[in-house]
Design goal:
heterodimer; A: 456 residues; alpha/beta; FAD/NAD(P)-binding domain; Arc Repressor Mutant, subunit A; 3 domains; five-stranded parallel β-sheet; 22% strand; B: 102 residues; mainly beta; Ubiquitin-like (UB roll); five-stranded mixed β-sheet; two-stranded antiparallel sheet; 28% strand; globular; FAD/NAD-bd_sf (chain A)
């Protein structure tokens, strides 16, 4: 084995940037591979062209962190090998397969830090595939990166800290917010009081969004369940249940989601052991507190190893890099490592409380009609999925995928795997932990069929 | 179904005065702005990206970060691109199935 292979980092969000900085400080020259045009990840993503907005306009209360990370990464450029707009689509043994500039590349590695981030966690309801319905993250990206709102009059729906943040960002940018519809009861928000001891600044900022929305006349409703999107070609309104009553509200766009889900496909392909996490209702790669996995030389950082937010991603990025350096036989400052581990634990404590304040909705599928599309790629309905489960007495997710085609489309289950798991567990009265998890498949995202050889 | 969908879904709040970038959908001329993704250019001019393969229902993307793969569009040369992560280039010519192009 070649002893001089450089460490590789996949993903250039807050975790990847901090990992790169730490490796460079130790005298290493990492390869940083990122799908984005510019480093920053989703949260600190930068517009393609300057549109006159300041960092505060773009990143709000997190502007200073965004600016610092962008500056740090730009400063690292002479000391790293940076591959933007590059998709790692497979890990085979100790080799990464990627597409960059329309060409195929293979990169061998001994040490790999995966900081692959997260996507919106989604559940289906009637009409969710209509033009004008987007994820909360999409609504935020449209505004932050492209300076657009997803419609003229937008309903914000679901659960999670993004719900109030993005609604406020839309109001501030001059968009009209028709309503904020929280699927959680108001009482859930009282949990935020116990988050004060972990991060009073964050809690105050978070609560201020709701207050500012109300002061601008935006209606906030709690304990809501959407019944359908109104309209046949595009969004014309939203019907929803609040208590026992059904209401309709006019709007031309809907932004919705239920917090985030980690992107774990590459960790899976690298052979990492997974465990079921009750709080996040999903399978996560097993790591130690520094981000070491069960796969030799593979480290995880950021939301891709479990949703914990951008500040925790910075901490875990540095920790994973220090673990890598330590495992390569170089001494690291033990005080620094234990301080980072402690800081990471505090962030995890905060995350426990946020999950209670912005909970995943219970019994979602009790009120979802069978004709609802569960899988938007292959257009498989909820009733087809339930019939497939009952007909085959299925008890395992990969069988359900094989027989129903749900989860088999282009998104590889990113948008439907949470729904598949909830339906299978409810239909068969099994625990989520007992129905398995969708295996990652290469390529993790679609590739053009003709890829030129680009070298190693 | 008409190929003209003059109702714009997205609303621009910034970069309104950027240089115009011409493109077309089924031969009809539109213009985006410098710095647009393909998705933002199309959705700021019309209200859909494509028709779904199974039910021919309109689709317009979903996640905008390259994860859901819902926003692919087809260029006249036959190449498919993911609209949310592809920068708009002048003279891009998109084709849809709306006028029997496929």
């Amino acid at each position: 084995m070649n002893d001089t292979l450089p460490p590789v980092i996949v993903g250039a969000g807050p975790a990847g940037i901090c990992a790169a900085k730490t490796l460079v400080a130790a005298g290493l020259r990492p390869i940083v591979i990122d799908e984005g045009f510019r480093a920053g990840g989703q949260i600190y993503r930068r517009p393609f062209v300057d549109d006159g907005r300041s960092a505060t306009d773009l990143y709000g209360s997190e502007a200073a962190k965004a600016t610092r990370l962008h500056r740090e990464f730009d400063g690292l450029l002479p000391s790293i090998d940076y591959m933007p707009q590059a998709l790692v689509w497979n890990i085979a043994g100790n080799e990464l397969h990627l597409m960059a500039d329309g060409k195929h590349h293979q990169i061998g590695f001994q040490n790999l830090i995966l900081s692959t981030g997260a996507t919106d966690r989604i559940l289906p309801f009637p009409g969710w595939t209509l033009p004008g319905v987007y994820t909360l993250g999409a609504a935020q990206t449209a505004l932050k990166v492209q300076g657009c709102t997803i419609g003229r009059n937008v309903v914000f729906l679901g659960s999670g800290p993004l719900l109030y943040l993005v609604a406020w960002q839309y109001v501030k940018a001059g968009g009209n917010v028709a309503a904020v519809l929280d699927t959680a009861p108001f009482s859930a928000k009282l949990n935020l009081l116990s988050a004060f001891r972990f991060d009073p600044r964050l809690v105050l900022i978070g609560m201020s969004y709701a207050a500012r929305l109300v002061s601008r006349g935006v209606k906030i409703r709690y304990n809501v369940r959407p019944t359908r999107v109104d309209g046949s070609q595009y969004v014309e309104g939203l019907s929803f249940k609040s208590g026992t009553k059904v209401h309709s509200i006019a709007c031309d766009a809907i932004a919705y989601g239920f917090a985030l889900r980690p992107e774990t496909q590459l960790a899976d392909l690298s052979g990492c052991t997974f465990r079921f996490d009750d709080r996040d209702r999903t399978w996560l790669p097993v790591t130690d507190e520094a981000g070491r996995t069960s796969s030799q030389g593979v480290y995880l950082a950021g939301d891709g190893s479990g949703i914990a937010g951008a500040d925790a991603a910075e901490i875990s990025g540095e920790l994973a890099a220090l673990a890598l350096i330590q495992d390569s036989g170089t001494t690291v400052d033990p005080g620094r490592m234990s301080a980072l581990v402690k800081a990471r634990r505090r962030k995890a404590g905060l995350r426990d409380i946020l999950e209670k304040a912005f909970p995943f909705p219970d019994n979602w599928f009790d009120q979802i009609p069978g004709y609802t599309k569960l899988c938007r790629c292959e257009e498989v309905t909820v009733s087809t999925v339930i019939d497939t489960i009952n007909g085959g007495e299925l008890r395992e997710l990969n069988r359900l995928k094989a027989l129903s085609r749900s989860g088999m489309g282009r998104c590889q289950g990113r948008m439907c795997s949470a729904a598949m798991a909830e339906v299978l567990s409810a239909t068969q009265h099994l625990k989520l932990a007992d129905i398995g998890r969708l295996r990652a498949q290469a390529p993790v995202k679609p590739l053009p069929l003709l890829l030129q050889e680009g070298g190693s | 179904m008409s190929a003209h969908h003059s109702r714009s879904q997205f609303q621009r709040h910034f970069r309104r005065d950027e240089a115009h970038v011409p493109f077309s959908i089924d031969g009809i001329a539109y213009s985006g702005r410098r710095g647009d993704t393909v998705l933002v250019a199309i959705m700021s001019a019309t209200d859909r990206l494509r028709l779904s393969e199974f039910t021919a229902e309109p689709r317009a993307g979903f996640c905008l970060i390259g994860a859901c793969q819902d926003c692919f569009v087809t260029l006249a040369c036959g190449r498919r691109v993911r609209a949310c992560t592809t920068p708009l280039e002048a003279q891009m010519a998109f084709v849809t199935r709306e006028r029997g192009n496929e």
